[in-house]
Design goal:
Blueprint lengths: L2 H4 L16 H9 L1 H14 L4 E7 L5 H21 L5 E8 L5 H19 L6 E7 L12 E7 L16 H20 E12 L9 H19 L5 H5 L10 H11 L2 E12 L14 H21 L4 H18 L3 E11 L2
Parallel strand pairs: 1-2, 1-4, 2-3, 4-5
Antiparallel strand pairs: 5-7, 6-7
The structure holds S-adenosylmethionine (SAM).
């Protein structure tokens, strides 16, 4: 099944929404900011366009969207000030799958434009922000129109679910998808243009390592507890395949080399707490398991709902939070994240 038919982050601003439950992803954006800053400053050393094309791929909705864009624009404006140059015209493209809550983003644009005007005054180049619905596993933008591409917490989603009976299917699907991603961007990014991509990964070359998929394993345990009570059919669990793949550094480097359009500038890795750490807004009132459950629910509920039906969702995520609490009481598991900075060849 194609992912674009079933995947969207939970919409709106309610208790289970992505907007209210994306602190882990916001922390990832903060941790990768120095890499983003370095890539943009290096881009501006060799290429100072009058009109700069910036894309955020898999932008989703909620507060992270415009905070990323604002960070990128601040870095560029700071450099312009330092050099005594006028700021360029900003063309900002926000991409996600068509079922993303683009209306949420569009609704917050007037306030964002007003803030830009207040903070930057008349010397600020015009800024045009648009939504681009579609899969990043394919062409999205006109040729050579982008200077900087950002993507956070999105590229571990594959384009489709793989048949479970083929052991290597996930790894092959990742290779196919990532290569198509690079090929598509290679046509859209100008020579010397840069991409900073961060996503879930794994240290080991073995794709079945716990590190890459243990949260899915615990979700499967929650589902199996419902099978035992006759609330979910076992075949339904067996036929659910998450279109998710956490690659290892060797796989990434090998695909980039094979595709041939980009050079790796940096590839770093870092760990991040499953529950977002202590700075999360509801850290005091919810258990770690409840926080992990809310974060994961905001991301995967649309997919689970289309397979298992809406009615089991509250029960499932309640069970999942207890299983995660039990797991975290014994071991402090963390996500392994990678951040990749690559440059388009001339
Ligand atoms: C966990 S969210 C991350 C959102 C945001 N970048 C952040 O850091 O908060 C992942 C996003 O990737 C999007 N996504 C997944 N596969 C995609 C694809 N093939 N093309 C475009 N967007 C995709 C999902 O719809 C989702 O909104």
């Amino acid at each position: 099944m194609e992912v674009l038919q079933v995947l969207h982050m939970n919409k709106g601003a309610g208790e289970t929404s992505y907007a209210q439950n994306s602190t882990v992803q916001s922390n990832i954006i903060s941790i990768t900011k120095p890499t983003t800053e370095e890539a943009i400053l290096q881009l501006l050393c060799t290429n100072f366009p009058e009109s700069i094309g910036i894309a955020d791929l898999g932008c989703s909705c909620g507060p992270n969207v415009l905070s990323v864009i604002s960070e990128i624009m601040d870095i560029i404006c700071g450099k312009c000030k330092h050099l005594g140059r006028p700021t360029p015209e900003f063309r900002v493209y926000l991409n996600d799958l068509p079922s993303n809550d683009f209306n949420d983003i569009f609704g917050s644009l007037p306030a964002f434009y007003n803030k830009l005007k207040e903070e930057n005054g008349n010397g600020f180049g015009p800024c045009f922000i648009s939504g681009v619905p579609g899969s990043f596993y394919g062409r999205l933008f006109p040729g050579k129109s982008l200077h900087f591409v950002h993507s956070s917490s999105s590229l571990h989603w594959l384009s489709q679910t793989s048949p479970p009976w083929v052991l290597d299917a996930y790894s092959l699907q990742f290779q196919k998808d990532f290569s198509l991603f690079l090929k598509s961007r290679s046509e859209e990014v100008v020579p010397g243009g840069r991409m900073v991509l961060s996503f879930m990964g794994r240290r080991s070359t073995d794709p079945t390592t716990e590190e890459s998929c243990y949260h899915w394993e615990l979700l499967a345990q929650a589902l199996m507890s419902m099978v035992l009570e006759g609330l979910v059919e076992e075949e339904k669990v067996d036929s659910f395949n998450a279109p998710y793949y956490a690659p290892c550094p060797e796989e990434l480097k090998s695909e980039i080399q094979k595709e041939g359009s980009f050079i790796v500038d940096r590839l770093d890795a870092f760990e991040i707490d499953w529950d977002g750490g202590d700075n999360i807004c509801n850290a005091g009132t919810l258990s770690s398991g409840q926080r992990v459950s809310k974060t994961i629910r905001a991301v995967v509920e649309s997919m689970l709902e289309s397979h298992f039906g809406r009615v089991i969702m509250d029960d499932l995520f309640q069970r999942f939070s207890m299983i995660v609490d039990d797991h975290l009481s014994r071991t402090r598991t963390k996500y392994f994240n990678m951040v990749l900075s690559i440059v388009k060849k001339d």
